[in-house]
Amino acid sequence: AQGYVPTQENLAEREDFRNAKLGIFLHWGIYSMFAQGEWYLQNAVPDRMEYAKAADAFYPHRFDARQWVRAIKAAGAKYICFTTRHHDGFSMWDTQQSDYNIVKATPFKRDIVKELADACHEEGIRLHLYYSHIDWMRDDYPMGRTGRNCGKDASKSDWPHYFQFMNAQLTELLTRYGKVGAIWFDGWWDHDQDATPFNWQLDEQYALIHKLQPACLIGNNHHMEPNEGEDIQLFERDLPGENKAGFVDKAAQVSPLPLETCETMNGMWGYKVVDQNYKSTNEIIRLLVNTSGKGANLLLNIGPQPNGQLPALALDRLKHLGKWMSTYGATLYGSQAGPVKPCEWGATTEKNGTIYAHICPADTAKMPAAITIPMAKKPKAVTHFPSGAKVAYTYRNKLLTIDVPANPTTPDHVIAIKR
Ligand code: H57
What we know:
Elements: H1 8-20, E1 22-26, H2 31-34, H3 40-44, H4 48-52, H5 65-74, E2 79-85, H6 112-123, E3 126-132, H7 159-176, E4 182-186, H8 202-212, E5 217-220, E6 233-236, E7 259-264, H9 281-292, E8 296-302, H10 312-328, E9 336-337, E10 346-351, E11 354-359, E12 370-374, E13 381-385, E14 393-396, E15 399-403, E16 413-418
Helix pairs in contact: 5-6, 5-10, 7-8, 9-10
The protein binds ligand H57.
């Protein structure tokens, strides 16, 4: 909407989100059964109707929303973002807009979004809903760069019909499942190379969302300057401002909106049986610290298994991350980017007049002898976190210099600097 003015509750929600720092992304759908990631239909299946038959065998008998939510909360995450419908077009809730959904097309017949929403609300954790703008199943979605090899009939493309379908689905998601923290759109990039710019009619769609739930935050995974009506800015596999993920755009300018970086725990979003290459807990901690050091949240992805369980390695990472967060979360939650942006030795966060220097180089062989931080005034106190032990420093020419001890705490040696 031209002249979108966020409501007070929306602005409050943005701050709540900005303070959250860690969320867990869940990519789960019938693609999980093929165990080759969420792009399996696009990458390998010539006939989408053959792929769709998997729905009739989807029976994740170990699915327990409360177990997921508890494990995620215990990791220190403040929100969950769930794929209600990915590019394969399968809806994980009891939608009336299509029979291609969890209740009508599977023997499982349980509304996954409802169970997850209820568990999130009961456990007091934010719920964000991922919603794909792309659909590789329906003929009315006007194909872009993807979806051309799944057997769709381009002559049946009908944008007004598809747009109406999406808005009817979004209306369900925003009226049936209680408070929705955010809608996370993905797919804009499917039409980023069109000869004439594709009109997604975002203004109208965003206005609908903000009308139904004014506090609901809208994000769109386009890697560009936010469009009018967006409340948060998303970066897939990039820290804000980076562009390594291969999006077609010039910039990825960082806006003043709350920021979020999403990244996978292994290499794939949806469950992929051959990818057991999980990042170590220490690598995840460094990623989280660097994201916080950019003032952004980390949305860390897990691909649940076809039986409904989170993979054991993912549960292991959540558990160890939670242990670390129970102490160090205090230096991240509610913080802003500190004066030194992520660099070779680590990153800084700042909260209530205290700078936290996180010394956590990716390569521990590159541990610096000392770190320097520009400060306008001599600090009031410099201590080790969390012990509170005094740390020696020098302050000269508006530069604070702190020696790194011979045996720094790994993976993150934290110094608290009171301004
Ligand atoms: O849901 C996950 C993640 C959050 N977004 C999806 C993935 O399935 C991937 C989106 N990737 C965006 C992207 C980056 C580079 C270009 C697209 C064919 C057409 C475009 C791409 C490949 Fe590439």
